[in-house]
Every structure is written in C-alpha cells, then in structure tokens.
Amino acid sequence: MKNYANFCFAAIASTLYQLPVQATAVSDNSGNERPNLLVIMADQFRGDAFSFRGREAVKTPHFDSFAREAVVCTQAVSGYPVSSPARGMFLSGAYPHKNGVITNCQSESAVQDVELREDLTCWSDVLHSEGYHTAYIGKWHLDKPVKPFIDCYNNKGEMAWNEWCPPHRRHGFDYWVAYGTYDWHLKPMYWNSQAGREDFYYVNQWGLEYEADLAIQYLDSIKGSDQPFAMMVSMNPPHTGYELVPDNYKELYKGLNVDSVIAAMPHLRNADQKYVDYFKKSLPDYYACISGVDEQFGRIIEALKRNGMFDHTIVVFVSDHGDSMGMHENIGKNIFYEEAMRVPFMISWGDKLSPRVDQELLLSVEDFCPTILSLMGLEDKIPSSVQTRNLSKQILGSREDMPEYQLYMLYSQVDATGKNPETGARGIRNERYTYAVRFKEGEITGEYLFDRKHDPYQMNNLAGKEIKLAGKLRKALVQMLADAEDPAYAVFSR
After folding, report:
1. Beta strands 229-234 and 36-42: pairing type?
2. CB contact at 8 A, 376 and 35
3. How many angstroms separate the CA atoms of 383 and 391, rounded?
4. Which residues are CB-neighbours of 410 under 8 A, at least 6 positions away?
5. Helix 5-17 and helix 207-221: axis angle, to 10°?
6. CB of 102 within 8 A of CB of 85?
7. Tell me: the pLDDT tens digits for 338-381?
8. Which of 161, 368, 466, 492 is the Cys-Cys partner for 462 at CB 3.0 to 4.6 Å?
C-alpha cells in the first residue's frame, strides 16, 4: 500500500489533461450530436430530503436550483434498497438472480460468488463500444472481497467489505478513481486506473469534495473534444458515518430542533427509545452530509455549464436507496417502507426535456439501463440480458403505457450453506398501495398492506382486513415475479 495522495492527485490530473489529445472524433451517422451523460449517485439519500420538497428540514440550494431545470420524479424507488443489489441492477438492467448481486458484496456472501457478473453487458459497456469516453469516480461495491483481504478500515470486523476492481471487471469505464466500499469519509481511499490491488492511496480530504475536484478536472480536460463522454460520480455520504462530515456543514444544523421533527413522526415517536435516540443523534449530521452532497453537486454542474456542456448533457441525480434511521424500528434500509425505498431521481437535458415535477411515473432505479440507452438514441443497443423497463417515452412526457407497479425484493443472506431463494421478501408498490410478503424456507411468514394515501407513515397493516385488495396485489406481484423469472415465484405458485 502506498500513502501518496499528493503524488497520485498530480498523476491523475496529468492523465486527465492528456484526454483531449487522446480523444478520437467519432462521426454521428444520424447527423445529430450525441448527448453526453453525467450520473451523480448518492448513497442512502431519502427521496424527499430536499428543501424544495418542503418535507424535511434540510438545506439544498443547489438541488433546488437544478430541480427548476429538470424532470423530478417523486415516485422513484429502489426495488432492492441495499447498496450492491441496487447498483448491480442500475448498471445492468438485470435482476439480482441474473446479474449475480443477490445481496451486498462482502466476505460472507463471497463464497457464493456474489458480485456483478463480468459477462453481462451494462449501459457503460454499450457507451464505450459506441465511442464514448467513460469515467467512474467514487464508490463501486460490486466485487467480492477475497483473501488476503485488503488491509483497511472496512475490512477489520467480522466481515470484509472493501475490494479492488480489476480493469477487466470495470464494464467499459476507461478513467477510474474508485473503491469498493469505504466509510471513513474524512480520509477516503482509492484505486486509480493503473493501480494494482496493493496500490491504493488515502486522501486527507472529505471524499465528496475530492471526487468533485476530480470530476471538474475531467470536465475541464475534455472541453472541446469531439468525443462524447459518460461519467458516473458515486458519492458515499449520506451513508452511515454521518458524523464524518466537515464542520462547516455541521454548523448549518446546530439549531435544528430534532424533538419537534420526531413529534411529527408517528412511525418513530412511539418506538423503542433506542431508535429515537439513534435518530436524534444522527439527523443533524445526516442533513449536514446532504448539504455537502448538494454543494459538491452544484460545483460539478457549474463546471458543466462553464464549459458549455450542460445543454448537450443528460444529467441524472439518483440514490441507490433511502435510509430508515430508526423509523419503524429499523436501522438502515433493506425494507419495504417509504423511507428506505423512495429515492431521488432528477434528470435534465437542455431543451430536450421540459422541467416538471412528475408525481405519476412509477420509475425504479433498475429501469435506468434501458431507459438511458433509449434516450441517447441507442434503443437498438439495449442488451438482451436487460429485464427491466424502458421508460424513456414517459421521461419525455408521454402518459401512454405508464407502468402500474414497482417491484420490491429482498433475498436471504447467503453463506457457505448455499443460496436460499425461498427465504426473503417480495412486494409490489403502486401509486397508492404497498403490498409485501415475507417468507422463510418456502413458507409465508408475514403479509403487509399499506394505504399510503390515508396512512402515509405506513402504520396500519391492512392485509388481514382488505382481503380482496391484498389478493389483487398479490396476483400482480406473482405475475411480475414470473415475468422476471424470479426464483421466489416458486413460493407463491404452490
């Protein structure tokens, strides 16, 4: 391991500034300029955690400004609200049992080869093959840790989490400054494009700021190139480690009255005190992280505009999942409640997209691959392995063929005993209702039905009362599982 942050930063910058020389002009057979793509993904960012939404006491001036230039999808969800599975679906458009990421990538699941399949074609592979210069910065979390484990903070406990991604597993991304998963946000670690497994380096800078610096350098370096680009910046905060955020962001929330926030939250205020205490301790720092994401997002967008690229670039802001933070007595995500499932999804594209708040489109994170390729004029290049929905027409404003449901998934933990597709949970969500079923070893152990219109905090389980409605939603769920070739279908078909 080499601790040489300044040297690596200079080396990376040098590589970046060579890009315009190396870039090759690619003719556009259609006669139209092909759009660039910029994806910024945060981790554990709740769907309503913007000041412009008026539902959380958080300060996000840059997102508020961007929302006025974008399509804001308020019903977007993560179908599998856990880091690795959500990211695997986001890149591949294939469900976990097809893409290999049925749970988080860590040392326990590594014995079952839980990692993104190398032989799948992701949207990044397609864009690379179509002549795009591709770049990835930040959190990846799609490789299984292998022994001897990397000697770092996230690999010190009972499970190892962090792993290097070798070049042949980067799915078409050329420029690379990334890590698997690493939560010490104030001194993050990275591997760059040429680094070997032991050649990671640390940076004495908040991770998001460093990653924004790299993204801005990248944009500055390719200004004027004839080669289109696709860049994904994957920011770890507001993931846990909330307190590992610069003090200037913490100062914004020193006067936050968390007790008054809790008083308005029935799914928290009557919970076991340990969950209330966790929320009280975490919320100011969680908001501080979000304000930090907001500022770094704003810096990248400003660079895009300064370089004259904004109108020709599809810009997407999204999160892999939300964060319960004690709500419903749940820490983290991995559950069918709104605070875990609902995510931000905002997309702009110059004058090609009319800004609006879309409260109808039932878009899921996993729909991104076919949707973005179609928006970019590459519908005929959507890989045959894609199982999810192309919602490009609906993003553009069409209300025809609107999806009726969104899928929810939770696979069982896997270990050396083998994969167990008959233990876990599945569910379905529409514009009003959330229906979910838990099962163990093939037997259904719990059924849940919430009317979010009259019960927005999902406090009243109606599954035993609204039998007909539950049956209708269960039938729709079973059909979606069959269409997805989900092995959990067997649980419902007996």
Report:
1. parallel
2. yes
3. 15
4. 80, 82, 334, 335, 424, 425, 426
5. 20
6. yes
7. 999 999 999 999 999 999 999 999 999 999 999 999 999 999 99
8. 466
